[in-house]
Amino acid sequence: MTTTDPSRADAAPGTLHRELKVTDAAAFSIGLIGPVGVMALLGVGAAGILGRGATWAFVFALIAVALVAYGFVKLSRHIAHTGSVYALVGITLGARAGFVAGWMLFLAYFTIGAGSTIEIGLFLTQLLQDLGLNIAPDWMVVAVIALIVVLIVSRSQVHVITRVLLFAELIGAALVTILNLIVLFRLGTGTAPGGRHLSLDFLQLPAGTDITTIGAAAVFGFLAFAGFEGAATLGEETSNPKKDIPRALKIAVAVVGAFYLLSIIAQTLGYGTSDADVKRFTSAAAPYGDLGRAYVGPWLADLLTLFAVVSLFAISIGTLSGASRVLFALGRGAGLKGGVAKVSPTGAPLAALLVSGGLALLCMVIERLTGAGVLDATYWVLTIGTIGLLVAYVLATVGAMRFLFFGGRTRTPKWQIVVPILAIVLLAYTLYKNAVGLDAPYSWFPYLVGVWLVVGIAISFRRGLKERVGADLDASDTTALVP
Asked: Alpha carbon of 185 to those of 222, 256, 288, 371: distances in Å?
């Protein structure tokens, strides 16, 4: 970990530059989540399981993510490292566990990045058709071109990346929020199309729905928050990380959570809550476009679809930038002197970025060879990424519990141990629901993630790696006996 002066000009060659503030770190997390692009698709997925009660999937996920965020926030007050869970788990549970946690986070980031890049093709095609252009490019062609653009932007200086993510999401989120408010206003004033009206029907669950069904739908909610911990990968690029990173994490969860709840309520009531309306919602390819066209006009529908594409670019930039930083940390911890452990003159881990992009491309190629359509290809890699992310979250939460309550290094009130315990229970349950009783190909994905996990564990037992990782993590200063 670099201990150089915070200014970029004084950063030592080959090290990451400390140049970011709390707004930059929060923007990175929010951009990595990409809430505008997320709600263009995942609300539909949750509705496919819970119908008009899709809001509960996001409520469940928000509670669970808030519990998980507790551990990240607390640990980030003591540990500042570019490897995120690699360092958080490595310092709390040991070097080998830290390497495995970072390995799983790396999987999550590059697969989610691949899924988001593939999804660009879905909404770009929709936009072209809405504009009257009879063009339907193959999703693989669009994804490859988009990936090239993402990699070019991601090799920029980190403050440029965070600004791109911030402005892309701010403009899109503002437009979606305006649409949400217009939908709710027209519903409340009795001027909504189809005679729809404002009600609490969005809280109604289909007959026979139980907690297990909500848990199955919550995968969409968890995926919607994937990347909230992204700010933790900027631990060596933030001027005051032990203060700013925790604040950035809390801001990201709060802002994105409020946006999701407003959006899913507006989407559910905007489409309507009758059985026919719910069926229309669950089969929607572009919910923003449908609602924008019905409640405002075609111009807003096209603009929202455009910014869904922009938001997906932001997610791809954020996830692949995050993946490159985690891989950089893993390579440096493993004792590599070049390659993925090398930083470019601009402070970007360029080699690690290219490897991350290459793996994302490999995911796309494999899916294209199976003949998968754009929607299936998107969901498949996003699901794999979510499972990997949940494993990393479990390890980080266990590490936080050990560090905060059993390490003797903090004065955290003992009663707060209930928070990480509940987080682990919810994470374990969601993992279980994504590993048991699924139809192919989703039943295969836990095994694919399991293979990746076994490979990571095997690498962690490589001679001397534990000692080298431990030495790297020792550079991450922790503060003892603080609240």
From this structure: 29, 22, 16, 43
